[in-house]
Each structure stands twice: as structure tokens, then as C-alpha cells.
Amino acid sequence: MKELLLQLNEQQRAAVEYIYGPMVVFAGVGTGKTRVITYRIAYLLSLGVDPYNILAVTFTNKAACEMKERLSSLFPYKAEKVWISTFHSLCAKILYTEAENFGIKRNFVIYDEEDSVKLIKECIKEMSIQHIGLSVYDIYDTICRAKDNLIDPDSYRINTIVFQQYPREIIAEIYLRYQTKLQQNNALDFSDLIMKTVQFLKDEKFTEIRNKYAERFKYIHVDEFQDVNHAQVVLLKILSSVHHNICVVGDDDQNIYSWRGSDVKYLLNFKKEFSTQDLQVKEFKITQNYRSKKTILEVSNKLISHNKFRVKKELFSNIEGDFKNDIKIKQCQNEYDEAEFVAKEILKLQQIPEFKNASVAVLYRTNSQSRIFEEVFSEYKIPYKIVGSVAFFERKEIKDIIAYLRVLVNPEDSISLKRIINTPHRGIGETTILYLETLAKENKTSLWEQIVKIDDTELSLKVKNAVWKFLSLYDMLKKYKDTMYPSEFIKFLIEKTKYIDMIGDKNERIANIEQLVDIAKRLEVQNNISTVEDFLNNISLFTLADTEEKIEFKNQSFNLKEVVLMTLHVAKGLEFDVVFIVGLVEGILPIWWVKEENIGYKSPIYLFNKNTDLLGIEEERRLCYVGITRAKKMLYLTYYLKRSLWAEEQPSVPSRFLEEILKESGKFKFTQFNVVPETEEIEKVDFLTTGEYVVHDRFGIGKIVDILKEPPYDKVVVVFQNGQKKKLSLKHTKLRKLKGYNINQ
DNA sequence: TAGCCCGGCGTTTTT
DNA sequence: CGCCGGGCTA
């Protein structure tokens, strides 16, 4: 065990050896946060602590898997018995285990965003609301945020913190109906997993169950604590209520999930919140960065120092570097040009001995940016791997098959039922479903119940026939469901439902289904999954970051490891020798809707509109910071002067973050995009054509994409440099026509 | 019932 | 551009 501790520096060791009472480790970027947790667990095991009593919680499955692996290498046998999981799977597991005690059905399904949004749409339809001014997704987010803050529909209705311009009453009503519907469908959404678990464990009726878990978890660990939300904090308080032995690790500069309800205040106030009368929270700090060269760390420090709401740190690195070689900034003409530059640089890199086996990543703000890199990398025969991208489990054919499985397990799941009842076509159309739903409502039963009792309805014989056929198919599938492994059953199912015939020869979709079968097989072997129920439970919390799409090229003399493409969010927690951060332009990073004045955290937000509230420039800056600090040896920052948006091309300006990094440094010549302001007044829209440029006092240069002659005022639709699209009337807005624009070096 | 066409609209990040 | 929903027709 001595050896284990010798692998740590003094600051890390101090944290690892402190094993009694609540503690918080403020660990800057690259200082070995996860290392502290894994070594602490290993240390505990070496002291003879029963792995059964240890819990470690992370945010992503990826992080959980990595921790398991690292721990296994330190402590091969006992490590597997340590409970390491994400918040969501921890709660799902508790809910499955205690379902009977809690009085919920054990076969509940977990709805993802798409399912949930469908249910919300149903609620809105029922209420026959005309216009709320919020999209269904905004409403979904609002409800999720409420749940993250443990606010139920009633509390929501009466809370007064909500901004008055929003229809609070209406949202409360939607929320209430949505919860009822979830229950009728025997479903929980993501936020429910945490909220319900907390509600049950808090309930006086379940004191015994609460104590069972609180007694069990003698040592609790939480990674990336800056990303926790209120509900998660309450959960942790419950779980640590007996032993008060909780160790959390975090970095306020890396909080990039405030839009998901997380709040850095829980990290900063941890001492106050988790100290007890007898036990004061012990605070630790780790400041030595082992990951990046000095030069790269310096750049990241410069950037993050522009944030006002942060705890000042003194991070340092002992890895020598050379500014000119380590950090490169490149101006490109457009996105294609940028991707080509990245490709060429990667090919150059592998000629350099130092980078022969280097790991390389391309990081971007939005998933849609990956496409051009895929194209260009294929052209240049550069093998790559996309982490995340279009989520595998959100693809149509995958969701269809999962929906079949769900309905077989839980026929009350009407969202899944409606998804598959006429896929492929069986002659059970919309009107039939609508009719049956009305009946279900009248008789206070489920849609499924009405389908089973189809004989009692007044539907045409043709329709009844179609439904009978569907029911006999269902019975047959149900009969075979438990006779084979999930992977076999999926193959059986797509045959018998004629789903495979519907797909025909669309290779991509067939490949996807094959991949699903592979995943099932893998789970059967690795996780001992043998039933459809277990399979569903396992995959319902699989998400973006867990899916990887590998593209390889044969006959290649490519030395580097495959290049990794992913979003900045997914990149958190990872490191690479060489990092490209691309698309560093205003409107992308920072993304267009953040406002200068929104700098801090507004929380709890009980109702928000993504376009106007909550998100601020500081979180975008942190995101950029996370990206930069992934780099160990070399960092590329690229931007372009023009970008295409839908079919349009529009001018772009370099991100302010570039300027912040480079200002004062004098080490780079920074190019700016300037206007030669030769403008003229515009009297009428008639003098304008689409494609022309205009100047606005506040928004800057924009391109006219449309001219609308609609009473009472004519309007022009303008896309501005920061990406914002505005509909403006000349009556109210001062616009000047731009005679030409130039790019000044 | 199902498929087609048209118009409007949205650009995020993840469990 | 690409995806939705609505409306229309076979």
C-alpha cells in the first residue's frame, strides 16, 4: 500500500489519507481529481474496508466505466464489488430494487427526451392552448429544472420567484398533467429518477429503507461535484446521513452544465452544507497540473481569468514548453478550409518523431460541426472516431425496436405503443387511435385496455380485423420473449413483425439494427443480461457519450491513433496530446444566444426560456477553458471568416475568447474583421435586395436574407455576424446599407 | 388510411 | 438545408 501512496504528490496524498468525516477537494484542471478518488478507494480497500460499503458517483457512464477500470487495475478483485455508477443509474437501481416497497410497478420504463416531449404535446393538445410563447422543448426543460429543484406541480403553481411575464399557471397545469400521464404510462423521465428516489427516501413511511442505504454507504465519493443540482445534493445528504463520510471533488472553473440545473454554489458551500455539529468538513486543495505544458496552462489561465464569478487559483505545471511551437492559431476562409487545414496538420504531425503515436482530438461546440470533418477526413484517408454524434439510441429504427420491447414488457406505455402499432403499416391509423384514446379516457382505462377490448367498440370490421391481427402478433411475441436471449429475440422480432421487410435494402438502417444486436450480445456476455427486461434497464441510461462510431481506412500509412471527434461537453475529463478547437467564431463559441450581461448563475430557475434566460458568457468561457485544458503537448485554435448557414454564407468574426487569450501577450499578431463604413441611408425596403449587407448600431453587420411586405410595416430579415437572425422594420430600426465590406488584416 | 406537397421554422450542450 | 405539422387527394 505504501507504493500506492508514493505514486501521489503531497497534496493528493493528504486527501487520499483523510478517511474520516466529510471532505471536499478543490482540484484544479489536470491535477488528478479522478486519481484522488480511485486511489482513495484503493486505499480504503487496502485498509480492509468492505467494498460493499463504498459508493462512487459520477455524471456520465463513460466516467463510471473509466473509474471502474482504473480501480480494477489497482485492486483487481475487490474493485468489482464497489458500487460505481452515475446518479441516474444509482437511482434507477434503487427504484427497481425497492419498487414493491415504494408501491410502484417494477416494470416501469424510462422516457428519454423524445418520449417525454410527445407526452407534453399530448397535454398541451388536451388543454387546447393557443400560444404560450415557449416551445415544447422549453416547457420540457422548465419542468425538468423544476424537478431538479424538487419542486412538484403544486409548489410550482404557488411559487413566486417565477418571472411574471411567463404563464406560470399554464406551465403548472401542463406539469401536473404530464406527471399524471407519466404515471398512467408507467414511465419515469430522467429527472424523475432522482426526484422520486429522493421523495421516497425522505418519506417517513420508508425510514427503514432510507436507513438501509445510509447504513450501507460508509464511504461516499462524488466526482465533478461542480455539476450537481439540488436534487442530487439532497440525495447525497440522505445517503450520507448516518456516517457523514462523504468525499467530493470538483473545480468551479469546469461547471458547464448549469443549463441542466447544476449550480456551482453546492461545491463552494459544501463546507457549510455538509458539516455537522461533531464533524467539520475538511477542505483540500490540489494545484499542480500534470497534464499540460506550462505554455498551454498559461493560455488557459489567461482565458479563465476573464470570468468574474470564480475562485482564484494558482495552478502550475512543471512541464516546459515553447510558446511558438505549442500553440497555433489559424485563420481560415470558411469551414471547409478549416477542416482541410486540420487534416493537413494531422498528416504533418505524424512525420514529427515526438508526435508519432500522439492522441489527437478535434473539439467543437455543436454536433453539427462534425460533418465537414467527416467529409474531409475521408477525403484525406484519416481514420477517425466520433464520440456521441447523432445518438445511436435516438435513431428511428432503434427507437422502434426498443418500443416493441417496451410494449411487451409494459403495454401501458402508450407512447411506445402508438409508435409501433402501425409500424410497419397494419391498417390501424390515426383516426382509430384517436377514437380509442377518447374511449380510454371516458372509461378511465389505458389505450392498451381499449385495444384488448376492441370487440366492444363500434369500429368497422376491417379495422377490428387489423387490431386482432396485431393482438395475435403481440401474444405470439410475448410467448417467445422469455425463451431466448435479447439479441436473438430482436432478430426474431424484426422477422415476425415484418419490420425488416419495411426497411428493405436501406443498408444504413440494417447496419444500425445489427449494431443493436451486437450491443445486446455484448451486454449478455459482459453484464450477464439474459432477459428483455434486464436489457431495457441497461440501455435506457445509455446515452450519447457511450456510442462511438469508428471509421477506418485500409492500406494506410497512418501512424497516429485514430483522431477523436467530439463536442467540448463530451471532452470533459479526457486528455489528448494534440487538441484542435475549431470554429472559434462569435455565434458558435460563444454560442449566439448568450448575452454579455448574463454572466453568472441564476438559480434556481423555475421557468426559463432558453433564448433569454439563464445562460451566460461565463459558461461559454468555461467551456472553451475545458477544451484548451484537454491538451497536453499542443493546441490549435482555428476560426474562419465566412460560414455557411443553411444555404447562406455569412461573415463571421473571431471569437472574443481568442482576443482575451492574446491580448497583452504580444506573442501573436491578431487579425480582426473590420468594416470599411461606407454606408447609405435606406428610405424604403424597395431599395433593398436579398444578399445585400446592412449595418445596425448594436448588432453590427448583417446580411439581408428576406424582405417581407407585410402590413402594417414592411420588414427585412437580417442575419447578423453573431449568428442572430432578426426580423426588423425600418420604421423602428435604424439600418444603413453597406456598400461593401473588407477584411482588414 | 396513407402518401404527398407545402409552408414555417429552428440554429446548443447530456442524464 | 432538413424536419416537422397540417391539409389535401387517391
User: Structural class of the helix and strand makeup?
Assistant: alpha/beta
SS strand fraction: 15-25%
Mean pLDDT: 83
How does the overall form come out from the CA principal axes? globular
Query: Quick one: how many beta strands?
Result: 25
- Which stretches are low in confidence, meaning pLDDT under 50 for 5 or more residues running? 598-614, 666-676, 740-745
Work out the helicity level. 40-55%
Distance between the termini: 60 Å
Task: Trace the largest sheet across and list its strands.
Answer: 11-17-16-12-15-13-14
Major sheet size, sense and barrel closure: 7 strands, mixed
> If helices are DSSP runs of H or I spanning 4 or more residues, what is the number of helices?
30
Cα-based radius of gyration, to the nearest Å: 28 Å
Description:
The structure is a single chain. By secondary structure, the chain is α/β, with parallel strands linked by helices. Helix content is 43%, strand content 16%. The chain contains 30 helices and 25 strands. The strands form 6 sheets. Strands 11-17-16-12-15-13-14 form a 7-stranded mixed sheet, sandwiched between helices. A 6-stranded parallel sheet has the order 3-2-6-7-1-8. The chain has a 6-stranded antiparallel sheet with strand order 20-25-21-22-23-24, with no helix packed on it. A hairpin with a 2-residue loop joins β18 and β19 (648-651). The longest helix has 21 residues, at 461-481. The chain is globular, with a radius of gyration of 28 Å. It binds a DNA duplex (15 and 10 nucleotides) through residues 59-61, 86-89, 112-113, 135, 190-191, 193-194, 256-257, 259-260, 365-368, 388, 391, 422, 425, 427-432, 541, 543-545, 567-570, 587-588, 591-593, 610, 615, 623, 644-648, 723, 725.
